[in-house]
Write a structure and sequence with these properties.
Chain lengths: ~170, ~290
């Protein structure tokens, strides 16, 4: 087993070049959490279902528990730690989750926000149905999704420079 | 969950990958999007000693048209299939099917090649490929060969692929203008395999079904080409009696297992319902 050589990986994470020595079987989520100590992304189900480990990799939302670190060689990754501005100003999505109460326990939140980040880049003005379809690979066991959808709508409005209108109850 | 140890290879060309997979033999597996293989490795149900990652081979990516044929590289992802304007215009059933595969994150990684070549009866694309009469181009030690999708699947996870061979591309023959199509999938939740699903492509002439191809997903050891059901529909105006006979013919070839998705009897019955819905929708679109 241990005769398999470790491999050198280099990637860009939140704008910084990082490198490490990993076994080929090291999952990307373990590299991010345990080598880089970026523990915002969570391991939920560890089977590719829940989305808590979602990262933005080369313009795609990816479940990093289902990818080896060696596969991410040369890629550019954004984690939840990379979303706020350097001065600490929250990203519109982070602000939206706060203002709209888009989280309770918070475990799914980094994955939800990273997924919503890519969704809003691809579709800056999504309908509620498109938001729900867009986050269908992320499970939340607290909120019932209502406030997560509102949080994403809030962020979309803010990013578009329009007023957030809450849907009538 | 940590997979077993393996050596990782990242060839840059089809030839290099073919040479590697041939020399490493049965201890090696090609790695496409990884969203079937990596979960299996984490469960230690797959323990390859070598992974040959096909992601660094540009020739395996993309969609193009060659004469009437549409050729799709094996490493083209579901998300790329959804975004392709060429496919939306020429083979719209691929977009419809891709949208019910797994979830958004997985569609960014999951590939057409992985979906068709893995041999998992739960995968959605094999039935669609059968209705389209797609051909698979495979490369191995002896060079390239072409296998019709309808002859590719031999059993659960058993396909016509020999050790060392891998899928390069899928060729879809030109579809007639104005064909009708549908992929109907019953699933319990996003990301689930089908309880049962049906793919259909048909053409109409003067209100009568002129050609029809039908196949079923996840109600047997492989996707099932439902030839008799399609024959029943050809020549009909989709009256209730022929639709019921076609659904019954599809149910007759279904042999699903009883599992969390339902009993074998229930899943068989759902296969018939999916056929009826898919045919009705395809008929309206034609």
């Amino acid at each position: 087993m241990s005769k398999i050589q470790k491999m050198h990986v280099t990637m860009t994470v939140n704008g910084e070049t990082v490198e490490g020595l990993v076994e080929p079987r090291t999952l990307l989520i373990h590299f991010i959490r345990e080598h880089l100590l970026l523990t915002g992304a969570h391991i939920g189900c560890d089977t590719g279902h829940c989305g808590a480990c979602t990262l933005d990799i080369d313009g795609k939302s990816v479940k990093s528990c289902t990818m080896f670190a060696v596969q991410a060689e040369g890629s550019s990754i954004v984690t939840i730690e990379g979303l706020a501005a350097p001065d600490g100003t929250l990203h519109a999505l982070q602000e939206g989750f706060r203002m709209m109460h888009g989280l309770q326990c918070g475990y799914c939140t980094p994955g939800m926000i990273l997924r919503a980040h890519r969704l809003l880049i691809e579709n800056p003005n999504p309908t509620e149905a498109e938001i729900r379809f867009g986050i269908s690979g992320n499970l939340c066991r607290c909120t019932g999704y209502q406030n997560i959808v509102r949080a994403i709508q809030y962020a979309a409005a803010k990013l578009n420079g329009t007023q957030f209108q809450e849907a009538a109850e | 969950m940590i997979p077993g140890a393996f050596t990782y290879h990242r060839p840059k060309s089809i030839d290099e990958a073919a040479a590697l997979l041939t020399s490493l033999g049965e201890e090696a597996r090609p790695l496409a999007g990884g969203h079937s293989l990596i979960p299996m490795m984490k469960l230690r149900m797959a323990t390859p000693e070598h992974l040959v990652d096909l992601a660094g081979i540009p020739e395996l990516k993309g969609v193009c048209q060659n004469g009437g044929d549409i050729i799709i590289g094996a490493m083209t992802t579901q998300a790329e299939l959804i975004a392709s304007e060429l496919l939306a215009a020429q083979v719209p059933i691929l977009r419809e099917t891709s949208l019910v595969i797994a979830d958004p994150q997985i569609r960014y990684c999951g590939t057409l090649g992985g979906n068709v070549a893995n041999g998992d009866p739960g995968n959605d694309m094999p039935a669609v490929m059968m209705t389209l009469d797609a051909r698979y181009t495979i490369v191995g030690e002896k060079g390239r060969r072409v296998i019709p999708s309808r002859e590719f699947y031999q059993g659960a996870y058993y396909t016509a692929l020999e050790p060392g061979e891998f899928l390069v591309s899928v060729t879809i023959p030109a579809l007639p203008d104005g064909h009708g199509f549908a992929y109907e999938k019953m699933k319990r939740k996003v990301g689930d395999y089908a309880t049962a699903a049906a793919a259909v492509v048909l053409t109409k002439k003067d209100g009568v079904i002129a050609t029809c191809a039908l196949a079923l997903t996840n109600v047997g050891d492989t996707a099932l080409f439902a030839e008799e059901a399609a024959q029943i529909l050809i020549g009909s105006r989709l009256d209730a009696a022929s639709l019921a006979r076609a659904a019954a013919a599809a149910e007759a070839i279904a042999a699903p297992a009883t599992d969390g998705r339902g009993t074998a009897a229930y899943r068989t019955s759902i296969a018939g319902v999916m056929v009826a819905r898919a045919v009705r929708r395809a008929f309206e679109r034609a």
